[in-house]
Specification:
Order of helices and strands: EHEHHEEEEEHH
Shape: elongated
Helix content: 25-40%
Strand content: 15-25%
Strand order of the largest sheet: 3-2-1-7
Structural class: alpha/beta
């Protein structure tokens, strides 16, 4: 039985883990995700903030428990890959909840870590990035608490334009 590790549990990582399971019912598959949530509709986040999608639960496609029960895939959230040793075929993982660092061995490794938002080089309680549901929750909370009526969107990618459209309406 092969040991397969997938780094990243959002769109790419969750999809590839599911596809592997369909093709290979026997391998041991573990997915490590550094953030809180897995398999969420990141393209839908602007529409949730714009209240086009009213039910926050619609943003979540699956939970680690569902992946384990339905697909026999282990997903560990708050676990970040921090070092790769391709000679030994091991990966160092940091558990962000406990601080523990441990090593996991693999036969096959798939990397789908996603992206990092660029920062403007200064800190402010009024500057946000939108990359995941945690970011979405912070933005939504700020909008509600501060009764925000205007915003500056930095960037012109798809998500930025969708945020602009949804906050404008």
């Amino acid at each position: 039985m092969a040991k397969i590790i997938v780094i990243g549990a959002v769109a790419g990582g969750a999809t590839v883990a599911s596809q592997i399971r369909r093709l290979d019912p026997d391998s041991d598959i573990t997915v490590y995700e550094k953030d809180r949530d897995m398999s969420f509709a990141n393209c839908g986040l602007p529409y949730y903030l714009g209240e086009v999608v009213e039910d926050r639960n619609m943003m979540l496609s699956a939970t680690p428990e569902q992946f384990k029960d339905k697909k026999h895939i282990t997903v560990k959230t708050y676990h970040e890959a921090i070092e790769l040793n391709d000679t030994k075929k091991t990966i160092a993982i940091k558990n962000h909840e406990t601080g523990e660092i441990f090593e996991d061995a693999y036969d096959k490794l798939i990397l789908s870590p996603g992206c990092r938002a660029r920062h403007l080089g200064f800190q402010s309680d009024r500057v946000f990035t939108l990359r995941n549901l945690v970011d979405t929750d912070k933005i939504e909370d700020f909008i509600q608490k501060e009764n925000v009526q205007s915003a500056l969107i930095v960037g012109a990618g798809y998500v930025s334009l969708e945020i602009l459209e949804n906050l404008y309406n």
